Structures are given as C-alpha cells and as structure tokens.
C-alpha cells in the first residue's frame, strides 16, 4: 500500500505549475443571486447569468451509461486512464466517484475530454480502503458507473490538497480541515486525509440515520455506503422539496449552498444546460452532507444574499497557481481568504467549471 501511495505523490509532483494573475471581474459582476430555497438544515441559492453559446458536453455519468467513456484501472492509486470513444466532448467534475476496479476512486480535477480522445491519464484518490481485488462480479479492469459525487466539504478539500499546496495565500497561512494546511500536507497524506474523511462521513451518516450504513461487501467503500436504502429514503425527502427549484429558470448557471446556517460550497458552469445536467448529482451530494451534519437542536438562520455575494465576490483575490490538467485544460487555484477557489479552463481562456469551498 505504501508503494501505491508513493506513486500518488510522484504523479502529483509531475504536474507543471506556474503563477498567473486572475482577472475575474467581468463575469462574476454579471451574476445575479437568488434564494434561499430551504429544507430542514439545507439552504440553496441560485446563480443566474448568460449562458455561453455552443454545444453542451456529455457528463461523465451520461457517457459511462452510454459506454461512450471508459474509465480504466491502472493499478496505481492516484492515476486512472479515461477514454472517450464518442464524437462529443465529455465533462468530468472533480468529486465524481467511479465505482469498481480494484478500489472505488474519486476523480480529483475537473476536465473536458475531447472526442475520440484515446486513453488519457486522470488523477484520482481512493474512497475505499483495503480492497485491491474484484468485488463480486465487477470488472477488475474497468469502472462501471459514476452516479454519485463526494458529499463532504472537508473531503473535497482533502482530495484537492495537492493543488492547494501550490496556491499562494492572500491572507496568511492556509487553513484546511482538521487544522491541516494545504502546504503541510503531501499528496500521500492527502490520501490518508481522504480516508479519514470517508470514515467521518460514514460515521456521521450512521448516527443521523440511527443505523450503520457501511456495506458488508466493503465496509470502507463510500460509494456502497451512499447506496444505503435508509439514506436514499431520507435524501428523497430533501430532493422533493428542492430539486424543482433548480429546473424552473432558464438562466441558472450555478448554485451555492449552506448547511446549518454556514456557507459551504458553490459550483458555477458556463451554461444553464450544463448546470441542469449536473444539478441532480450535485444536489444529492449536498443533501447527503446536510443529512450527515443535521443537528435537530440547532436553529440556524440561512445566510443573507449579501453574504453569498461576498462569498462569490471577485475582489482582492490576488494571485493563483496554474496547474496543467491535460494538454488542453488547466486548473487555476486560489486562496480567497474565506474560501478556496478552483477555476478549470481551456488553454484559450474559456472557463469550464468554477468551484468554491468555504473555510470554517
């Protein structure tokens, strides 16, 4: 296992990194934010804007269901191979879980996969511990599906630690989960932090649901835990209350959510069409996190719109690091002071996905 973790460290170290100055003002200034729409301890805010023209890529979930994209096991914890056999682009979002192979993985960076791509390496970390063989009738060499995304802000920060380690802070030292900073954590320790947060998520969900959600087939698997029937029933309650709100307006390009009165994360896309494709998967992950974090004794008011705007504000962001993701896609990472910001964009400057993760 240590040899596998070391390969993770080497893979991340090989990424090329350079400084750049970010210019965000024009697009974020044009966003309009509405909400919140709340259910129990989860509040959703919608980001409205003008959609970029052009074709909408397939999502990883769509493409794997169609067998248009294949995710291959490589035998390395931190690196898989992904292949697009279709004639359309495919959008992969950081936090997408792929099920199967030798261990379930989370894909750590967003990217666009070109048509007829051939095999492309993609960064990943394990969200299952101990298994290194086929599970049941699953294919050991390929991953079967990508139906869920990681349901934890701390887990998202942990999996992005290799990128955060190179992000220059605008307000002093970085402050990541469990008092560990991005600079302090190596890629190898990022894997351990991911495993720790997987266990924490399972424990909190089990406590909230009043029963152990770890699956007998692989108790450490986050994906199998998310397939628990009791969890699905609880998620349905939130989804019925919130899902339609994201499908009502044709200019929604992103969303922000708060749990227990605290801003958590945001995801913004270039178009309403891509937002809609990702909406159910994103919302379900937010709902799952809210269930894990629910405190029936807490009566917290959701943040006001001014606070949400500040969370998304473009001012005083300072410098960012640029990391090569593929030959055509790069990731710009910033420490905004109150949040981490991840901006995935094409080489020509057109952005693909923006993700904010609050610090608290």
Write the layout of secondary structure elements.
Elements: H1 2-13, E1 17-21, H2 25-29, E2 32-39, E3 42-48, E4 58-59, H3 60-65, E5 69-76, E6 79-84, E7 90-92, E8 97-100, E9 105-107, E10 111-113, E11 118-126, E12 143-145, H4 153-159, H5 161-164, H6 187-209, H7 222-225, H8 229-242, E13 252-259, E14 262-268, H9 272-292, H10 305-312, E15 319-324, E16 329-335, E17 339-346, E18 351-358
Parallel strand pairs: 4-7
Antiparallel strand pairs: 1-15, 2-3, 3-13, 5-6, 6-11, 7-10, 8-9, 8-12, 9-11, 13-14, 14-18, 15-16, 16-17, 17-18
Helix pairs in contact: 4-6, 6-9, 8-9
Features:
single chain; 360 residues; alpha+beta; nine-stranded antiparallel beta sheet; six-stranded antiparallel beta sheet; 10 helices; 29% strand; globular; disordered N terminus
Can you describe this structure?
By secondary structure, this protein is an alpha+beta fold. It has one domain (2-358). The protein contains ten helices and 18 strands. The protein has helices at 2-13, 25-29, 60-65, 153-159, 161-164, 187-209, 222-225, 229-242, 272-292, 305-312; strands spanning 17-21, 32-39, 42-48, 58-59, 69-76, 79-84, 90-92, 97-100, 105-107, 111-113, 118-126, 143-145, 252-259, 262-268, 319-324, 329-335, 339-346, 351-358. The strands form three sheets. A nine-stranded antiparallel beta sheet has the order 1-15-16-17-18-14-13-3-2, with helices on both faces. A six-stranded antiparallel beta sheet has the order 5-6-11-9-8-12. Strands 4-7-10 form a three-stranded mixed beta sheet. Helix 6 (187-209) crosses helix 9. It starts with a helix and ends with a strand. 48% of the residues are buried.
């Amino acid at each position: 296992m240590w040899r596998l973790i070391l390969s993770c460290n080497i893979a991340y170290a090989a990424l090329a990194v350079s400084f750049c100055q970010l210019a965000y003002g024009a697009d974020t200034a044009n966003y309009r934010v509405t909400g919140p729409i709340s259910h129990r301890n989860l509040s959703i805010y919608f980001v409205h804007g003008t959609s970029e023209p052009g074709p909408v890529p397939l999502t990883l979930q769509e493409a794997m269901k169609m067998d248009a994209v294949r995710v291959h096991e490589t035998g390395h914890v931190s690196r898989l191979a992904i292949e697009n056999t279709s004639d359309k682009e495919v959008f992969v979002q950081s936090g997408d879980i792929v099920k199967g192979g030798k261990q379930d993985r989370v894909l750590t960076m967003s990217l666009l996969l070109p048509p007829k791509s051939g095999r492309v390496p993609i960064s990943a970390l394990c969200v299952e511990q101990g298994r290194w063989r086929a599970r049941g009738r699953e294919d050991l060499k390929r991953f079967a599906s990508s139906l869920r995304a990681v349901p934890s802000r701390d887990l998202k920060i942990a999996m992005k630690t290799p990128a955060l380690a190179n992000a220059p802070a605008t307000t002093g030292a970085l402050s990541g989960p469990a008092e560990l900073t991005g600079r302090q954590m190596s890629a190898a320790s990022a894997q351990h932090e991911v495993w720790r947060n997987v266990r924490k998520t399972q424990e909190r969900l089990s406590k909230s649901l009043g029963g152990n959600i770890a699956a007998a087939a692989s108790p450490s698997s986050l994906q199998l835990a998310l397939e628990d029937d009791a969890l699905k029933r609880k998620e349905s309650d939130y989804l019925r209350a919130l899902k339609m709100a994201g499908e009502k307006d044709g200019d929604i390009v992103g969303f922000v959510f708060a749990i227990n009165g605290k801003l958590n994360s945001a995801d913004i896309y270039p178009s309403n069409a891509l937002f809609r494709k990702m909406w159910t998967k994103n919302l379900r992950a937010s709902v799952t996190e809210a269930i894990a974090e629910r405190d029936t004794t807490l009566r917290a008011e959701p943040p006001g719109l001014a606070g949400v705007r500040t969370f998304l504000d473009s001012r005083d962001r300072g410098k960012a690091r640029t990391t090569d993701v593929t030959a055509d896609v790069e990731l710009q990472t910033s420490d905004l002071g109150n949040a981490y910001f991840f901006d995935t964009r094409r080489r020509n400057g057109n952005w693909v996905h923006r993700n904010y993760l609050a610090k608290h």
